[in-house]
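Renewal narrative, Specific Aim 1. Our central claim is that a sequence can be written position by position from structural information alone. The example that follows is taken directly from our test logs and has not been curated for this report. It begins with the C-alpha cells describing the chain, in the order in which they were read.
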C-alpha cells in the first residue's frame, strides 16, 4: 500500500504543486476565505469527493459513503493567510498586496487535498487502505 501511495503522489506531484502555487498566489485573511473555499470545493468535485458547505461557503468535507461499522479518521488544514507584505520573488507570489501565506497554510491545504485525492482513488479502486 505504501508503494502505491508513493507512486500516486509522484504521479500527481505537478498537479499538487500547481494547487499550492494557486493557493499561495491568492491568499485570503481569516474569515474571508471565500474564493479559497470555492477553489477547494471545485477541486473536491473534480476529484469526485463529496462535501458539504456548512459554514457560509467555507466548506467541510465528510465522506458519507463510509460503512458505519468501519473505522474513521479525520484530517484537517487551516486555509487563512496573514496580513504580511510578501517580499519573495517567485512566479506564484501573492497577488494581494499586504496578504501572504507566510504561515504555510497553502502547503497544509495542498497536502490535505492531495491526501484526499489519493485516499479517494485507492478507495474507488476497491483498495481501501488498511493497517
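The sequence written for that structure reads:
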Amino acid at each position: 500500500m505504501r508503494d502505491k501511495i508513493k507512486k500516486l503522489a509522484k504521479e500527481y506531484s505537478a498537479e499538487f504543486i500547481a494547487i499550492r502555487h494557486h493557493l499561495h498566489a491568492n491568499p485570503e485573511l481569516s474569515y474571508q476565505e471565500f474564493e479559497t473555499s470555492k477553489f477547494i470545493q471545485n477541486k473536491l468535485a473534480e476529484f469526485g469527493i463529496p462535501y458539504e458547505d456548512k459554514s457560509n461557503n467555507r466548506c467541510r468535507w465528510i465522506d458519507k459513503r463510509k460503512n458505519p461499522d468501519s473505522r474513521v479518521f479525520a484530517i484537517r488544514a487551516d486555509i487563512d493567510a496573514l496580513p504580511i507584505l510578501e517580499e519573495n520573488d517567485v512566479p506564484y507570489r501573492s497577488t494581494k498586496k499586504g496578504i501572504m501565506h507566510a504561515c504555510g497554510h497553502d502547503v497544509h491545504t495542498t497536502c490535505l487535498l492531495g491526501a484526499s485525492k489519493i485516499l479517494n482513488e485507492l478507495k474507488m479502486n476497491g483498495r481501501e487502505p488498511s493497517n
